[in-house]
Design brief:
Elements (H helix, E strand, L loop, with lengths): L3 E10 L8 E5 L4 E5 L7 H16 L7 E6 L10 H8 L3 E7 L5 E2 L9 H14 L11 E4 L2 E4 L15 H5 L3 E2 L12 H8 L5 H8 L16 H18 L4 E2 L13 H4 L8 H6 L1 H5 L4
Parallel strand pairs: 1-4, 9-10
Antiparallel strand pairs: 1-2, 2-3, 3-5, 4-5, 6-7, 7-8
Length: about 290
Amino acid sequence: MLTEVTATRYVTPLREGGSLPGIVEADDLGTYVMKFTGAGQGRKTLVAEVICGQLARRLGLRIPELVRMQLDPVIGLSEPDQEVQELLKASGGLNLGMDYLPGSIGFDPLAYQVGPEEAGRIVWFDAVINNVDRSWRNPNMLVWHGDVWLIDHGATMIWHHNWPGARASAAKPYNASDHVLASFGPDIASAAAELAPLVTEELLTEVTADVPDEWLVDEPGFESTDALRRAYVEPLLARAGTIHERITLDAPTTNGPSRAPGWLADRLTPGARTTRRTANEQSVKDGGQ
């Protein structure tokens, strides 16, 4: 079970994401990025964060620690933003916290190198969970102390938004052509050989058990939270065994501007992706604007 803490101070909202997460301090003296049950995406986003985040951690990928976080909306009374006030009021009770990584910076494929082995592990994992939100447009990766960390898994397992079609949806291939790590030559075969045997029914049962019952109740078509947890296990187990055979890595749809800040772009050295760097040179110098 995830550790449970209580939010003691609302620090500031993070406006990069549509769910408007916020930085909060907790009674364990830790600082977290809180994701709210009252956000527009609903509690299924938090369910996906827990299942995919905990699965990644069990497979040895770097994911900030997740915690259950109790919220009393009164801690946001001094927040001047009306939107934030309404979000806090709608999210009283149990929410999700992700360990805040101070000093981390967003991953940019022009500024950082990732080896084929690590790239393969991440692409394979994203294929298993059907992550549609780790593209060059929105990497959802941080660099902290020189290592790559994975964040934001709310846009995964799209089949849980339509359970009657879950079996067919989970059987679909995974197009990784726009994946932010596609250009690093990900070694997917080695990743599958290493990680697929680890994704067992027992492991997935343990991972889904970390989802709080209150985020699973009243799901249409399921008599109990245990039945719903089982519904999450089955597609993930099936995908882990065979998805490496159905991953597509073609040319990306289009190049996007670098998100590297100007001070970092000045330190870039020419490499294997010289053509891409040249195409984005002016954007990099402008700090990705």
